[in-house]
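Figure 2 data, in text form.
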Amino acid sequence: MDALTIENLTRLHPSGGGVREISLSVARGEFLVLLGPSGCGKSTLLRLIAGLDEPDAGAIRIAPAQGGAPRGASRRSARRASARDQRRPQAPAAAANSISIAAA
């Protein structure tokens, strides 16, 4: 079973940016990296996955965690996604922005 499935996801901004018809799946244990130039939709995709923005179309499914919640965590499945400032690649990883993603 895939941990994350995105199907035909679209979110367009009035300025013309956003994501258009993105589909992907990430299996349990896989590691996904989003790379691209400024304005290509990386942060928009992460905000959609985290539930901070609503998609215009498409679906996002996050599978529940296996084996219950990790120690010290709530019963909801929590994952982390990080976005690094591309203008400062020398910044330490601790300075990266992080978003917690929880399954509904």
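Caption note: Confidence is low (pLDDT under 50) at residues 72-77, 94-100.
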